[in-house]
Amino acid sequence: MEKQILKLPAVKKLEALKAGVLFMNLGPERVELAFSLIKSKIHEVDYVVWIAPNALFSSKVYKKYLEKYSEGIRSKMFFFPIECVSNSDARYLRLCNLVDKHKIFCVVDDSLTIKNMEAGRTRRLLALANKIKYRMILSSLPLTQGLVDLYSQIQFMNSKLLNMTETQFANIYLPYFEDEFKTWKRWSLPEHEEALVRKMRPYIYDADFDFGYKVRDYDVYFDLTPKEIESYTEEKNDFLQKRYQVPFMEVVHTFQHFYTICRSKVEALFDLVSEITLRGEKVIIYVRFLDEIRFFQECGWFEKGRFVVLTGRTNKRKAVRMFEKDVDIMFSSYGVDNLGLNMQICHNVIFFSQTFDYKRKIQMMHNFYRPEQPREINIYNFWVKTGLDEMIRKNLLMKQDVLNNVCNIITKEEALRL
Questions:
Q1: Residue-level pLDDT, tens digit, the chain, 418 residues
Q2: In terms of Cα–Cα distance, which of 284, 277, 280 is closest to 323?
Q3: Is the whole model's pTM more than 0.85, yes or no?
Q4: N or C: which end of the chain has fewer CB within 10 A?
Q5: Could you tell me if 275 and 283 are in contact, meaning their C-beta atoms sit under 8 angstroms apart?
Q6: Sign (positive/negative) of CA torsion 79, 121, 360, 302?
Q7: Distance between CA atoms of 376 and 260, rounded to whole angstroms?
Q8: What is the dihedral of CA 297, 300, 302, 303, to 10 degrees?
């Protein structure tokens, strides 16, 4: 009933603004509300273009949503995977022709896929935005890496709303500061976040950040042995010797690789996995490096056939089917468990090695979400007591704080009042 009450005011706003955003969990309500807005304007457009990640289009559940709610207008629907916008010139030219020759209602589902202004897909979509009659973006979350994630989404909805370049946006909303590691970085303050949301409010048609699960976080810390410290120091010095300039992420990747398989962390993993499997539960173990998976495959502790591996080199659907039916342990590299893979049977996640990319952790949580199944998930974060792991931990906390604050601001009653 609430969505029906929302519909008429939202239609009036769409008529006036020509654009909007639904910050709602991936599920039937999000798709249903988007199509209700589309159908309210279907007589004003020639075609509807629906853009989403290929992983979503590959999901049987998602395709059922599209089929159900597009009933009556399917002949006007065009579907484009977001990946083809940048990877396929032919598909992009087809999209350009549609936009140039016809009145279009365009929906971008999972708008976080166009948050990077340097990405080809973002630049190409923004180049077409002003030619599109109606624009709607959908996303479970407004941002993952920081306030800058909102810049391109706002540009797609209305490039005149901010009327500034990305550099100008950064200078206003993301001032520089020096952190405790003597590193200069840009970061937003609560007042910047509130000011930006205030600008966006007219375009926010609905927001729902209740994912329907409870998370229990456990941070576990590990010391390197004296021998491991000595080896780590030697490896670092050898890497930096005669190097005057080294890209930061190359340093992070290399240094983290030196210490990630330390003795105390590996032994703790064995103990924790034993405890989880004795409870009759399943566990997913996330790692940054394929070498880590290779180590666990060869160490002899995990019996062959008792675990499954999910990486960019494996058959994802086969691996997930095995995890669902036959095995209780999955090793996964970050980023391969894209939206659309159902991890409902698992209640335990171990981040064996860490990443700066907060989006990867958020993306993983999407796989656990089902609106009809409230549940509890145990998250175990493994940290090695090094300066680098501490830097990653604090960076992730800062990103989480920005996300939580922006979500709280958006969901205030006045932000949703239409």
A1: 344 434 667 888 899 999 999 998 878 889 999 999 999 999 999 999 999 998 889 888 899 999 999 999 999 999 999 999 999 999 999 999 999 999 999 999 989 889 989 899 999 999 999 999 999 999 988 999 899 999 999 999 999 999 999 999 999 999 987 776 667 788 899 999 999 999 999 999 988 887 667 789 999 999 999 999 999 999 988 888 877 777 888 888 899 999 999 999 999 999 999 999 999 999 999 999 999 999 999 999 998 889 999 988 888 888 888 998 889 999 999 877 655 556 678 889 999 999 998 888 877 776 665 555 567 889 999 999 999 999 999 999 999 999 999 999 998 744 444 4
A2: 284
A3: yes
A4: N
A5: no
A6: positive
A7: 28
A8: 100
Q: Angle 311-312-315 (CA atoms, 0-180°, nearest 5)?
A: 80
Q: What token pair was written down for 213?
A: 């699960």
Amino acid sitting at position 110 = D
Length of the chain: 418
Joined together, the tokens standing for residue 179 give: 């952190």
Residue with tokens 């103990």: 271
Six-digit token string for 357? 């990319």
